[in-house]
Structures are given as structure tokens and as C-alpha cells.
Amino acid sequence: MTAAAVAAAVLAGSAACGTVEQLSAGKKLDRAFDKLGEKKSLSFELDLDTDAASLKALDAKSEPAPGEEIPDEAAEMISGAKITFTVQSKKPISESGEKDFVGMAMKVSSPDGDLTEYRLIGDYAYVRADVKALGKVAGSPVPSADDLPPEAGAMKDVLQGKWVKFNTKEMEKAAAEGEESGGVPAPDPSLDAKTQKKLVKALREVIAREVKFRTAGGEDGTEHITATAPFRTLATELFGRLRPLEKDLPPGMELPTAKDLKDAPNTKVTADFTLKNGELTEVDVDLAKLAESAEVKKLGLTLRIGKGTKPTAPAGAAELDMDELMSGFFAGAAMGGGEFAEDDLAGQDLPEDGF
Question: Nearest to residue 231, comparing CAs of 274, 301, 289?
Fold first, then answer.
């Protein structure tokens, strides 16, 4: 959500710095994102628009080592992957702080079913996953629930695809204690407000110079705003402006250099923003041209925006023991090998998310 907000501010603000058409597009995008911020609940759906053959072609172009090629099953699953996210707050989202959000939910799904799901409600996080399917994507074996000892408790439910829950406050405490003792690292710090402002200012200046905006009307109150820019030029300029801020970024965020980007394609990439009666409903980005010589039929991203609903806590979720979880019990069990669990996902439905 933070990334989306920064992108929105950058695009809307930089569009307003250009020609009359840029100004018109900037105002419309600005108003559209303002309307999103006024809502108390929102849902987002991110869809990867591609096919397995295109993913295999991209993988082959990267020249993977023998045995490291993307499996056919993984390519099929990823090509149809979809991520949905819904959030609800007591206040308008643009005015909300961490304590104002009453619930969040995220789900990753494929054409064959849900892969993983996460809900955050109060002090508890609820999780379930199809570990058999995820194991195929990762190429890592996962043991059967029957291979775990009786004291594994809720870990068996994890392997069986059932809902489990854990107390987020206890996890934060365990992570902090692990950091003090040189064990489990604490979460990386996020960007502070001052750095965010510098970041947005730098990005706006580059986008105002490199990105071209156009508007086109449609039927029934629908309007499209497109943003187009040459990929390598834009990426090189963006990272060049961000490099002086690198010391203020969270640890581990290494920015690519101009030398790293010199072989990146410089074809033009376009993002299409769909507005319905002034409200942003969809963003489409076509990335197929970036594939260059790879035989890619289609490669794009689609973000759909809808009205969210309050996530609910799933019934019957077993609670994970934080001591076992933070000490790597599950990781150790996974290293033991064994076959995948044959159990299907528990039949739990998300509340309607507005799509």
C-alpha cells in the first residue's frame, strides 16, 4: 500500500508539471487517488497476464544452470497467479495510522485453487497454505504431517493446509529477543517521513521529464490515461536520482548502477490507468516488449481496484507455539524431507472482496 501511494503521488504530481495535456492528466489522477484515500475499505487484485510458454521462454533466455530450469508445473501455476488484498479501517485510509486498521487479508491463488492466505485481525494473524503446491513451485520437498512427532501440535495443521494462527505481539517480542541474543533478526526499519518526501521529490522530477501522459475518453463515464516511457532511460535516471538517498534506505536495499542497467532494453513501456466516473478502477502494464528476443506472446500486469469488506477470523484455527516457530522448528522439519501431505486445503471462504 505504501508503494502504491508513493507511485500515485509521483505520477499525479509529475504529470501536473508538464504540458496542458500533462496537467489535465495529472489533475485527473490526483483526484482519482484522493477518492481512494477517502474510502474506509478497499480491495486490490494483481493479475499476472502471461502464459506458461512465455515464462519458459524468459527462463531460457536467462540461461539457467542445468537442472535449474523452471519446472513446467511451476510455469503453469505462476502464469495464472493472482494476488488479492483487502483492507478496512475505522477512518478514511489516507488518514489512518497503524492502530486504525481493523482488518487486512491477502490471498495468492492459481487456476487450480488457493496457494496461500493470510488475515490480520486484532493481535492475531491467521495463515493457511497449500504446501504441496508451493513445494512444487519452490522445488523443495515438504514432509507429510504424519512424519511429525505428536508434540508438533499446530505444525501438523500447517502441512495439512488448515488454518493456524499466531499472536503478532508475541512474535514481535520473540524477534526482538532473538535480535538481542544474535538469533532471529528483528524486522528491518521502514522509511521515515523525511526520506519518503525526498524519495517522492526525486522520482517526480525524473518522471516529469521522461514520462509522456495522454488521455482518451470512453463510454459510460470511462476514461483512460496512459503513461509511456523508455524503460532503460527511465530506470537509469530513477536510480541515479535515488543513489544519494541510499544511505537513508533500509539495510539491504542495494540500488543497481548505470553499468548494471546498460544491457536493459530501452523499448517504451506503457501503463494504462482506467477511470470510471473519476474513480481509478484498473491499471494495466504491458511488459512484453521488454522480453526482446525471447519468444513471449504476452507479459503484463493488471491491478484492479474494488470496494473491500471487513476480513473475518476463520473458525477453528489452531494456535502456533511462538517458541517453536521462532526457533526454526518448521524449517528443521522441512529439511527432513519426506513426501508431500495429500490433504486438501480446508474449505474456508474469504468474504466477498468487491470483484
Answer: 289
